Amino acid sequence: MKEKGNRIKGMDGLRGIAIIGITLFHMFPNVFKGGYLGVVLFFVLTGFLMVITNKKKMENREFSAIKFYISRIKRLYPPLLVMVFTTLGVYFFLANDSLRGMKMQVLSIFAGFNNFWQISQSLDYFTRIANTSPFSHLWFLSIEMQFYLIFPLLLFGLYKLEEKKGNSNTIKIMLGITVAFALIMPILYLCKVNVTRLYYGTDTRIYSLFAGMLLGWIYTKEEETKKNFYISLSLIVILVASYFIFDGKTHLIN
Q: What contacts 174, CB < 8 A, 6 or more positions away?
């Protein structure tokens, strides 16, 4: 991965892999069980890009939480508004009865707590035939919104931690936090917590975003000869570990 202007080579390819994996999983769930990797990869890329695009601003005293929130709103809400209201319009003409009870669901989408709403409604993501909502997959966007909300605080905290503890210790602490959050899902699963709750939960998903932040922090600090090694190795470890977690889960579900 090398920067070219404001872009990094490889990012589009990784996004493509994530999209293909998710699409194949939903089309052929019994064949492409590892398609869950696409979701994890998207979260990792989000954390990574947030760090490398904002860390320098923080170091130069140019970072503004207000400007960050405004930029996220401008990026997310225009296409989200078009998608949601276009879908509602189609349903109004073709399946009007399906619109009943969607008010709270639509509110949860725009307010960024759709994943919690789906958990509260006991909406099983894995019951594909019974689950007819066109907005089921937007739980993913809600977790990203929640991450954006706390990201300025996380970035500021890491910046101050590096000033006091140094870069090496900051990376070790970030790694420890990432691993700790990564253990939440398997531990809760062993405790027989509902699989859908684990799938939608912010607490069980945020480790991927933290892993991305860790990769971004390493990328901005290590010398050029080590950047590709750390990034490639870390991504492989995250993807392989996630595959065993999610593939094993689908075997138990199906």
A: 158, 210, 213, 214, 217
Distance CA 18, CA 153 (A): 28
Q: Which of 48-52, 60-64, 97-101 has the lowest mean pLDDT?
A: 97-101
Residue 142, class by beta-carbon neighbours within 10 Å (0-12 exposed, 13-18 middle, 19+ buried)? buried
Whether the pLDDT of residue 133 is over 80: the answer is no
C-alpha to C-alpha distances, 9 to 2, 6, 94, 184, 198, nearest whole angstrom: 5, 10, 43, 33, 33
**Length of the chain in residues, anyone?**
254
* CA–CA separation, 251 and 179 (whole Å): 24
Q: Could you give the CA distance from residue 82 to residue 93 in angstroms, rounded to a whole number?
A: 17
Task: Determine the pLDDT at residue 100.
Answer: 79
User: Can you give the pTM of this predicted structure?
Assistant: 0.81
Give the tokens for residue 209.
Answer: 């975003």
